[in-house]
Amino acid sequence: AAVPAGMLALLLGTLLWAPWRTLHGAPLAELSGDHGFQVFLQKNLEFTRKIKGDVAALQRVVCDTFQLCKEEELLLVRQDLGITQAPLEQCHSRTFQAEACFSQIRDGLRIYHGSLAAVRELLPGHTGLVETLQLDAANLSSNIQQQMEDLGLATVTYPTESRGPLPALSSHFHHQVGGFFVLANFQRFLETAYRALRHLTRL
């Protein structure tokens, strides 16, 4: 089931609160012992885990339906298709930049919202789950954007060449492999976003 809008607002408040308060000079130590702050962070991590679980469920369907299960067996086809990963280098702990990281999460969610259309076509029996994922991605992305605007934060827009991870697919097999890599890349994207959020809980 889709996450209610009110819950998304709470989750996004958490997503944005920790780094921005730090940037504006409020000691994070003041917040780290606050029960409500910790609850918000945990809910945010749970929401990310929920989306990851939905992606994993679709990966199992692709494996069972098309026998596309192991990424290493498909790397040459991936190279031919030119499928790319949405960037999240600003979210790695060594180079963590809060505004840039959340801008990349927002942009990446938009990319995968579009790319999941190929998975929906590939798995007509699982349309509901794919559409739930698309709704989660779209709501999270638009709400991050709104929160950034409300807080007067700098919005970073990344080059358009990173916005097309799924090219035109010429055959049904390529469509299947394309769907496989959309899900594999989305799962990696979510894992990096999850680590960035978990990093904030440890500051």
TrEMBL record:
Its main location: secreted. It is found in: Secreted. PROSITE patterns: INTERLEUKIN_6 (PS00254). Keywords: Disulfide bond, Glycoprotein, Growth factor, Secreted, Signal. GO terms for biological process: immune response; positive regulation of myeloid cell differentiation. One of its GO terms (cellular component) is extracellular region. Residues 1-25 form the signal peptide. GO terms for molecular function: cytokine activity; granulocyte colony-stimulating factor receptor binding; growth factor activity. Belongs to the IL-6 superfamily. This is MGF factor.
